[in-house]
Amino acid sequence: MWYTEAADLYEQALEKGGKNRSKDVIQKTADSYYFNTNMEKAYEWYNVLYENYGKEMSSENIFKYAHSLKGTGKYARSKRLMRLYNKKMKDAPASELANNVQENETALDNILNSKKDFEIKNLAVNTEYSDFSPMFLDSNQVVFSSAKDSSFFNTRRYKWNDQPYLDLYVAKVNEESNDLKNALKFSKKINTKYHEASVTFSPDNSTMYFTRNNYGKKLKRDDKGINHLKIYKSTKVDNEWTEAVEVSFNSDDYSTGHPALSPDGKQLYFVSDMPGSLGKTDIFVVDVTEDGSFTEPRNLGPTINTEQREMFPFFNGTKMYFSSDGFTGLGGLDVYESAFDAEEGFAEVKNLGQPVNSNKDDFSYIVNEENQQGYFASNREGGKGDDDIYSFKRLILEEVPENNNAIAGVVTEMVTGDIMPQALVQLLDENGIKLKEMSTEDDGSFIFEDLNDSTQYTLKTVEPKFIDNERLVTTTVNDTVKVDIAMKRLEEMIAIEDGIKKIKTEMIYFNFDKASIRPDAAKELDKLVSVMKEFPTIVIKVESHTDSRGTKSYNEYLSDKRAKSTRDYIISQGIDANRIESATGYGENRLLNDCNGSSPCSEADHLLNRRSEFIILNM
Question: Would you state the pLDDT for residue 399?
């Protein structure tokens, strides 16, 4: 894990070219920069990997590439890569996947356009090295982690990022400026020659928990050579901290770290990659009993944890703040909050937005809820070194404008990216009733103003020779939600698959044991009708299929009914019946997966097989 040296050596190998310039070496070069959060260099090499080996890239590397794109501010391209990542990761029908991607893109647009209601400042105690993980010791002191070292002799270096090892420091809070001053090393009983970081204190300040490397007389490594992190506990006796001891849920086989006590000291939240984790690192909790022992760790579940990294929890009793790169965000680690209710548990997470979050790593957020002031760390541009600690205070707006709710955006052509002036954009309510419409300006832009607070609308974009585009958008109070729309030409729905020319819609799905056209299917069939009206010589045949449930003969009967109901719908929309040569059901004879009754399948798997397809016989 000496990533700094690894990156240099890989680059030397790549310069020699030939067999050295392999997929494996390019990937490891990019990964080395990624793990040190050097997103500019990570992007440079992931981009080389993508251009040369795009189809062979794993979902893991596509995810890292997308994050390096965010980390360098290339949000539009990052969105496209996240769509590719989602396709590889999510086992869901295409229409459902499209909705998920659309929701993520809308969420990112909302974050980018959120109000900047924080004032942040870089602190005087920051150094050229890594300074992070602040925690309140009391009302006028903060303990934090730093790689600075005041030794006059050569400083020992941590090979991961070529920085000195971390120690804990304590500093006083300047009440007026919220800055930290007079930083001194914390207790000698706690700081060692290896890493110490991420501390939390009990309500009476008599007990502390912190993170340290797993070591005895020397560093301990597992069978893969990895030195894991562990949580240690120290108590205060006669105003001195005692020798720290491990907590019971540590292990030599996985890491535990980033401890965070609840305000009453009865729950200890922490981060781990232990068995039972949903992703790379998850947030867990244990109860702290009266005698100081702990219950079995409990995973906080999929509301908080993703398949990626969740880190640096801070819990104030009513809200959990933490950092993650698994939710929609601005790049790297972003800070999120989740409201907590004793009966309901943790609510859906929210991104704190700019300026707390940036396109780099933003983490270890703590806040005093009474005065809305606190601290967090970031390795964003403009800092003094690697990770820096920032203070923040939340600004209170004196006046709230009567109504600045708006939805704005730009309409472009999907393939070329050209702007589309004079495209018709309609605003529909939740029942699909048209409220307003306008044509885009010469620069392709549009705006709908004076809209209701926190209300969901549908944006429908209509243009001859293009597929109608619909986007769900929710207004933000006294803000403009930005939604850019890319329109697809009708001719791009015509595709060749396995040598067969088809009109490609999203899958036309049917409910179990039903042949009636669902509303979502009707929208897709309307696109097909538009293609057939645009190309009046096209003749098609309709093929319908069922899942494997029910008898074979009944499924052939049911699929035939579905084919004919699909044909009837197309004809009802003004297409000549002679242009549909046949409408045939094939039952369960052409399954798209292994759901043939030999093994259990989910409803989503069966749904994939209940579909209609449209074969072009004549153009």
Answer: 47
